């Protein structure tokens, strides 16, 4: 059933613009978890859904976070250009000017609101 819900959500994201919220957390065993939520308008109402929760296998640098997001989008065939806005927790790995998650994403989506 969860695969059906994910598939329905990805079908929407393939054709609609949406905002993305990304947060990285460190778990007690020193594991890093990346959470991604999306917000979009459906039938005139604001909808928020968990897109994924993925373990960061190498580190929590901006490039690793971006690659995790980009790989998910490629796998699900969701265009990165459908992302119109991004919210993060403000950590350096997210916001660093040259190596933060946002800098990598803005290379692919120059008109992104952050």
From TrEMBL:
Domain of life: Eukaryota
Name recorded for this polypeptide: DUF4371 domain-containing protein
Organism: Trichuris suis (pig whipworm)
